[in-house]
Amino acid sequence: MYHYSGVVHIHTCYSDGSSDFSGIARAALKSGAHFVLVNDHDTLAGLYREGEKYLHGVLVLVGSEITPQRNHFLCYDVQRVPSNKISPREYVRKVYRQGGFGFLAHPDQKENPLFPAKMHWDHWNVDMEMHYGLEIWNFFAQWMGSFQSVSGLIKNILFPKAFLKPPNPKTLLEWDRLGEKRPVPAIAGVDAHGGRNLGWLPTILSSYVHQFKTLRTYVMTQKPLLGNVQRDRVLILQALKKGCSYLVNHYAGRVNHFSFCAHFGDHCCRMGEEVDYDPSMVLEIVLPAKAHLRVIKNGSLYAQCTTEKLRLPNPGPGVYRVEVYKGKFRPRPWIFSNHLYLRG
Ligand SMILES: [Zn+2]
Ligand SMILES: [Zn+2]
């Protein structure tokens, strides 16, 4: 498998961000990403003006963020953005009817008394027939929810790496519960807007380059990317749609190699895959370095240890995922996998 690191959920000058695609791709190159996903509010203007393409060696793909007051929805592989005036059920359906797919954006975003705005999702079971996914980790939403006062804001600006917590436990629990009914792909979004339009934040923190070094979504593909836009976009979008991916907090460290799969016979069930359980199955997790590993089964802790590699024979049917924390004294959330669905 080939692993590619992407920055997901970016606003550009075609909505309320501060840069065109070239500036976005340059920032992505500086921060070491292979691809970026643009999600301007309620528009595909960037797609029509600039198109999807490789810029500075980075593949720029374009979706949109359907943005009513709350219940934001990140959609990809669409030709038209559904109106934000219709119900969430309707706009999610309209995305899937035209062959697209998407993710509930920042579903549990906390309110902030300094910048009051309710942007969470009201209800999760929008439509179980649609295999929409969840943005379980959102850098900007976490940042906005991490302080309640001006002194808290200053602390976050001075120590940006300290505020980034794991995804909201409520989101994780809902994600695990949904996963028991159907596969639910997850992504980590940055929700980057660039420096210029957030003038009250020190530019270095709000810049695209800085924010692209925070949360990443790594996709895994069977074939390598070759520089052909039409071919490569399909590989990346299919991996995202399926949940053949894992989420990384780059504040805690880069990732050279990570694997989480269930082996049985000659087969290997990878993240995002759904298979019938077989007692000969062995869960195998290989981390990029020694770290604290938590294996979650059906929403509950199943096993944990500090290790670089773990094998768990015959774990039983269930929905499995792993969480990895790095550091001895103040462990930081590092890697969150997508699920393996071993159905009994
Ligand atoms: Zn949003
Ligand atoms: Zn956004």
From TrEMBL:
Single GO term (MF): 5'-3' RNA exonuclease activity
InterPro entries in the record: PHP_domain, Pol/histidinol_Pase-like
SUPFAM superfamilies, alphabetized: PHP domain-like
PANTHER family given in the database record: EXONUCLEASE (PTHR42924), POLYMERASE_HISTIDINOL PHOSPHATASE N-TERMINAL DOMAIN-CONTAINING PROTEIN (PTHR42924:SF3)
Protein's name according to its UniProt entry: Polymerase/histidinol phosphatase N-terminal domain-containing protein
Organism: Desulforamulus ruminis (strain ATCC 23193 / DSM 2154 / NCIMB 8452 / DL)
Organismal lineage: Bacteria, Bacillati, Bacillota, Clostridia, Eubacteriales
